[in-house]
Amino acid sequence: MVKKLLVVLTLALFFGASAGFAEDGLRIAHVDSKLIFDGYKGTKKAQEEYDRQVAKWEQQGNLLQKELAAIKEKLDKQVLMLSDEKKRELEAEYAKKDTELKNFIDRVYGRKGELISENEKVSAPIIQLIRKAVTEIALQEGYDMVVDRATGSVLFWKKDNDLTNKVLEYLNNR
Questions:
Q1: What distance in Å separates the CA atoms of residue 87 and residue 63, rounded to the nearest whole number?
Q2: First vs last C-alpha separation in the chain
């Protein structure tokens, strides 16, 4: 929330101040990084790699669920015929398999799970490539700033237009 507010405030300050820069030829461009990401042919290859890994996890999860269901079914069908010892063994086996499944789900699909890590692993190089391309094109085309419509963030800014130190100096000298 604070980060989003700072971005909005920064953009508001910058665009509010941009009227003064317009006379000096400040050039601002915009891109849609989602459209670029989706349209880039390298994304398809990365998506296929990601999908293969997700399919492996789905197979593992399905296998664990089937094993758990088989134990549960055996326990339900044979509960009346099982000795107390065998019943406890099956219940312990079920509890162990249930814990294994829950741990697997958390490890793969949890907040800091392997699914998120894999997504970052395959998408990070593409994102870096997009940022590099935006920077190179902005410099070639003479833009001072490039805003991303998809995220509302600034992807490129010319260091010459950074007023941070001047604003700090102004505030600290008041």
A1: 23
A2: 30
- CA–CA separation, 109 and 103 (whole Å): 10
Residues 6 or more apart in contact with residue 87 via CB below 8 angstroms: 75, 79
Alpha-carbon gap, residue 156 to 139, rounded angstroms? 9
21 band by pLDDT with thresholds 50, 70 and 90: very low
Angstrom distance (rounded) from CA 96 to CA 41: 44
Model pLDDT for residues 51-77, shown as the tens digit of each residue: 999 999 999 999 999 999 999 999 888
Q: Is 130 in contact with 32 (CB distance < 8 Å)? A: no
Residues shown for the chain: 174
Residue 38, number of CB atoms within 10 A of its CB: 12
Cα 136 versus chain centre, distance: 24
Tokens of 124: 């990070």
Residue-wise burial string across 104-129, b where 16 or more C-beta atoms lie within 10 A, e elsewhere:
beeebeeeebbbeebeeebeeebeee
